[in-house]
Amino acid sequence: MTTLSKLLASLLPVMSVASAANAESFCYDGIIYNVTSDSTCEVGRQTPDDINGDVALPAVAVGEDGKSYVLTAVSNFAFVTCASLTKVSIPETVETVGNSSFSKCASLKVVRFLGSPVSVGSNCFSESESIAEVYTPTLESWISTDFKDASASPLNYGATLFNSEGIPVDCSVIPDGTVRIGNYSLSNMKTLETVTIPESIAEIGTGAFTGTPVKYLNITSLAAWAEITFGNYTANPLYAGAVIVLDGKEVTNLDIPYGVTSISNYAFMNYKVAETITVPASVKAIGIQAFSGCTAARSLSIGEGVASIGMNAFQNIDFKTVRSYAVNPPELARNSFSENTYSTAILTVPQGSLEAYMAASQWKKFQSIEEEATTGIGSVVGDDAGEVIYYNLAGQKIDNPSAGTYIRSHGGRNVKVIIR
Length: 420
What we know:
Blueprint: H1 3-11, H2 20-23, E1 25-28, E2 31-35, E3 40-43, E4 53-56, E5 60-62, E6 68-74, E7 85-90, E8 96-97, E9 110-113, E10 119-120, E11 133-135, H3 139-143, E12 146-147, E13 160-162, E14 180-181, E15 194-196, E16 203-204, E17 216-219, H4 222-226, E18 229-230, E19 243-246, E20 249-250, E21 253-255, E22 262-263, E23 276-279, E24 285-286, E25 299-302, E26 308-309, E27 321-324, E28 331-332, H5 339-344, E29 346-349, H6 354-359, E30 368-372, E31 388-391, E32 397-398, E33 404-410, E34 413-419
Parallel strand pairs: 3-6, 4-7, 6-8, 7-9, 8-10, 9-11, 10-12, 11-13, 14-16, 15-17, 16-18, 17-19, 21-23, 22-24, 23-25, 24-26, 25-27, 26-28, 27-29, 29-30
Antiparallel strand pairs: 1-2, 2-3, 5-6, 19-20, 30-34, 31-32, 31-33, 33-34
């Protein structure tokens, strides 16, 4: 049972339903509270001139009629412009902190969370630029909270994060067993240049790494990384230019391991050092912008199991070769490939699939489509491995092929091509 649940359970036997007329708000120990139920309350809007120095919010506030209420929230604008507030302590019973609750608190230097709120509202600490110290029980408790935006976090202006014992928190290593990193929880941490993400992570929230200059991303499984759910592109440290380090080595070829069934939206977005991308047959779907911005990549291999490719999945990449092993053309969303790829890359498709790709939406935009061919002309080809030779479908050599369908032989490799 959580602390909040225990408190509510202990208070319920002696509580009666509060009357909205006489229990809507009350003052306790100099702080205004609003009643939110017969057993709970929130911190209400304060008068700035009445707030000075340190404020330690209680887990339980007592109304003027002697009734006790568990504090579960800090309301929107509760302490906005409280210029003389220097420290605030928020109890573990608080589940939500509202929009702009501590905005424009010019003297606020220390923020202490005794628990981990579920959410912290937009601009909660905006323009409170003097915050230097932030306390949380553990790193796990900190990253479990969702911050609405970057200025919702008290770390936004360069404060140091400490644990409950006053020891600086090492945010570079996410503990094994952690499942989720909350929205904007690690945003704008200017000293965080290396981060280690365990295989247990299943979701990284929106903006989690926005403004954080991560240079190296340490992981132990490319497969696990490929299937993480990202809130948006700023949830992914690769977007800002981080390099993947797998088992101590920098990854330059994105060879997705067999067994991965889908590649998440934004999974490898902006991974600029990747030279080749290989998607295995086990993958069924490639997400939105999954590889967008992998500008160094020139070769792409798509496994036979791929059925759909999301919008902008390979945008801003100028591939030279695209090899699809899918007999049936995967469904392509709008702008899955760049215009340069469509116009200059050679697309190679399985034998018997050329016409299907030529007719398929988006795929037909490729100007050069080849089909792997098994022919009887192999024995008469290859006198010069550097020479490109064309044959018609009857096996006759063609010196100057015009528009039509041919077998092209180069270096002992035969492919069926359509010349437009």
